[in-house]
Amino acid sequence: MTDTIPHFAPGCFGSALSFDDAHPVCRGCAFQEQCKPLHATNLFALRARWGITTMPDAPKGATKTSPVNPGELALPKKTQELVDRLDRSNLNVTEKLQKGENPFAGTLPFMRIVAHLLIKLDRPLTRQFVAAAFMTKFDWQQNTADAHARMAFQALEHIGAVREMNGTIQIKRT
């Protein structure tokens, strides 16, 4: 690359690998028109260096990937199982928490503790605080308490009952 990089150009400017006309970042970049020919030159040089003379066809059945939507990312297995259980149970977790009722009064003891703390303390909870409560109430080891606190936070946030901010959760108010 012998061309001069313009002032304030992003670090990917002219990259043989990262430029893509269709990508929203490249489409919105002020340097796109200057970057495109430099990208082509650098890609050609890279292919020549590695002896690549043709572009292979895409494998059969392959489709162009699109950016991942964070809402569609998979939950950890145990958290997904908990979310599925909550969905099947019709506990109306979000509504009951907003009304100040514990939706887990007769089931899921560790979730009952989290809901109790959210309702009674009426302030954001940290995972460490909830894990300490689990260790005290259930006589759990640190790893077990941490895992259950993490699972509770993820499940409650996933179903929309709480909002997470800076590592804390609190009841989502309408």
Q: Based on DSSP secondary structure assignment, what is the total number of beta strands?
A: 3
Low-confidence stretches: none
Helix percentage range: 40-55%
Strand-and-helix sequence, N→C?
A: HHHHHEHHEE
Distance between the termini: 55 Å
Q: How would you characterize the largest beta sheet?
A: 3 strands, antiparallel
Structural class: mainly alpha
Mean pLDDT: 85
Strand order of the largest sheet: 1-3-2
Using only C-alpha atoms, the radius of gyration works out to 25 Å
Overall geometry comes to elongated
What share of residues are in beta strands?
5-15%
Note the total helix count: 7
Counting structural domains, the number is 2
Task: Walk me through what this model shows.
With 174 residues, the chain is mainly α. It has two domains: 1-55; 71-171, no CATH class. 48% of the residues lie in helices and 6% in strands. It contains seven helices and three strands; from the N terminus they run αααααβααββ. The protein has helices at residues 24-27, 32-49, 77-89, 93-99, 109-121, 127-138, 142-158; strands at residues 125-126, 162-165, 168-171. Strands 1-3-2 form a three-stranded antiparallel beta sheet. Helix 3 packs across helix 7 and helix 6 (127-138) packs across helix 7 (142-158). The model has no long low-confidence stretch (mean pLDDT 85).
